[in-house]
């Protein structure tokens, strides 16, 4: 009973009692949508990790197995491959809005710096992921593939977690420019 009260209060305070400003444009939603895109990439990526084998010999077969033999595997694989293009478009729109409206100015310098790190890391995720792609897989030695795979699933995600933690901590600290 006490738990239910806590959960209800948490949801009301953080979601249902928060109002959306009248004039909120699509551009104003791009930060949140970038986060949603990242969560989709993370969950579909974890799913693919169960099947992907990062060797020159098996990379293609393992992806073919996911696409043809695992239930809904084709859908998850396609989402993980198309998602980054949408995510990059969203992150760039988010950044351009902040740039053109001058929101990066004091006291939001650290939001901007952690955001810039997130932009670079998003591109690095895209680059290392495209190196694992079955279309490029055969051009590489296994050792290269394992190197890109380790960066894609461990190295860069750790840096993303750190930068995102800082980004959201700073947003929480100052509140957003146009409060909801
Ligand atoms: C994975 C990439 C990113 C995610 C998930 C993300 C997410 C968010 C979210 C959810 C907010 C709060 C709501 C909003 O104002 O939209 C925000 C605010 C902010 N972001 Fe990002 N962001 C990312 C990349 C960037 C980039 C590339 C920049 C700039 C270089 C940036 C700069 C800022 C700034 C300055 C704010 C504060 C805006 C305000 O106070 O209204 N972010 N971000």
CATH fold topology = Cytochrome Bc1 Complex, Chain C
Number of domains: 1
DSSP, total strands: 0
The ligands bound in this entry are: protoporphyrin IX containing FE
Q: Nearest-angstrom radius of gyration?
A: 19 Å
What's the overall geometry? globular
Distance between the termini: 30 Å
CATH homologous superfamily grouping: Cytochrome Bc1 Complex, Chain C
CATH structural architecture: Up-down Bundle
Which percent range fits the helix content? over 70%
Residue stretches low in confidence (pLDDT < 50, at least 5 long) are none
CATH class, anyone? Mainly Alpha
Given the helix and strand composition, which structural class is it? mainly alpha
Sheet bearing the most strands, described? none
Mean pLDDT over the full residue set: 91
**Count of helical stretches:** 7
Order of helices and strands: HHHHHHH
Portion in strands: under 5%
What does this protein structure show overall?
With 180 residues, this protein is mostly helical. The chain has a single domain, classed as Cytochrome Bc1 Complex, Chain C (Up-down Bundle). It has seven helices and no strands. Helix 2 (30-49) runs antiparallel to helix 4 and helix 4 (73-100) packs antiparallel against helix 5 (109-132). The longest helix has 33 residues, at 142-174. It starts with a helix and ends in a 6-residue tail after the last helix. The mean pLDDT is 91. The structure holds protoporphyrin IX containing FE (HEM). The site of protoporphyrin IX containing FE (HEM) has 23 residues, from helix 2, helix 4, helix 5 and helix 7.
